[in-house]
Predict the structure of Cupredoxin domain-containing protein.
Amino acid sequence: MRFVFIRKKWIFFVVAAILMGSLYFLTTETVPTFQSTQTSNEEITINMVTGEFSTTTADGKKLEAYRWDPGTIMIPKGQDVTLKIFGVNGEEHPFYIEGTDIKGTVKKGEETVIPLNFTTEGTYRLICDTHTHEGHNEVPPMIAYLVVD
């Protein structure tokens, strides 16, 4: 017959772990990582920029990737929102918002202002016509996601 010896410090660690685990499951209130302080009557302004990443591989091949930053934005349904996009990289980015009639061009060094008000929930893609898959096989498309909720 074998005897198992349990040291006091191991009992302390086990009890502490059980208490921490039970506190996690007993906590009913969640704490949001971000909470908007704007009221629903105020107009929301969202700022976005164009960005470029480029590098050269060991064999001398140049790789580029363009993006909207931030790549995903949340927009309240039925709320007036102003989207301001500042052109940082690339001479120009002609764009459209999928599922809408919204089109425009973001030019380097300039700010493009787009008034938005979505009445239907869903995810809308902001797509750059210059940087899509066609003709840029190795470059990912330049797409941002507008999530309306």
Remarks:
- The chain has a mean pLDDT of 83.
- Helices lie at 8-26.
